[in-house]
UniProtKB/TrEMBL annotation:
It is found in: Cell membrane. This is Carbohydrate ABC transporter permease. It comes from Pseudonocardia zijingensis. Keywords: Cell membrane, Membrane, Transmembrane, Transmembrane helix, Transport. Residues 88-278 form the ABC transmembrane type-1 domain. Gene3D superfamilies: MetI-like. Pfam families: BPD_transp_1. Its main location: membrane. It is a multi-pass membrane protein. The chain crosses the membrane at residues 23-47, 92-113, 125-150, 156-175, 204-225, 255-278. PROSITE patterns: ABC_TM1.
Amino acid sequence: MTATLEAPPTAAPRVNPPARNPVGSLLTILAWVVGVLFVLPVLWMLLTSLHSEENAATNPPSLFAPLTLEGYANFFGAETGTSPWPSLLNSLTASVLSTALVLVLAIPAAYALSIRPVRKWTDVLFFFLSTKMLPVVAGLLPVYLIAQSIGMLDNIWLLIILYTSMNLPIAVWMMRSFLAEVPVEVLEAASIDGCSLTRTLRTVVVPMVLPGIAATSLICFIFSWNELLFARVLTATVAQTAPVFLTGFVTSQGLFLATVCAASVVVSLPVLIAGFAAQDKLVQGLSLGAIK
């Protein structure tokens, strides 16, 4: 019998870790610095909203002053009795309904400009973009006169129509970039199976571009929620929105800093909640639209 000798195991070659890139480290530090600079005013506003008016108005600011909810109580009408809920509901109604109308109009338009392109579609897109070049204040007086003549002043439906028309061009541009990523073969297969255009949009196109729809919806919602100029001029009490209500805290008696900061935090919450809820789809949608 012959014994077989096994070779002793050889040690695996040692792999040195990759050297750190100094440029990447500097960019990381720069990104953190920029992020902190963006977040710092928000944190400062939140901290100021938890101080009393006396401590909020000190110079230099008092960082370690006692915390209180006095500013939030004043915002919700503890002293004046004026409730912000009608204004918040008006903003929510105008923002949600205008965003829904924008999507209903923008998706078919973007479909026609991307998947089934019309003649001179680039001219059509430029026309949409040119409507955003007009300063908003230039159209304020004509819109006011038209609304006055038809009895639509201080009406929430007027704001819904205005916000829809203002956000529609940017929504068409965004949705076209998303729909351009849809494979034509999928649409042809749906057509062979007998799907109508409406059913193709509802069951094939919309699920595929859902991240893009989420990104477009969030941007339109933010634009509508933050709009102030038209709401300030065209509304009074019935259709007053949250940004208009917020400006009411700047009075002739002075600026109540803690109350204004508390009001700003409350008014910003719907946008922050919507952003966090659609965070994954927002990033995916924006990156999808940036590929092409």
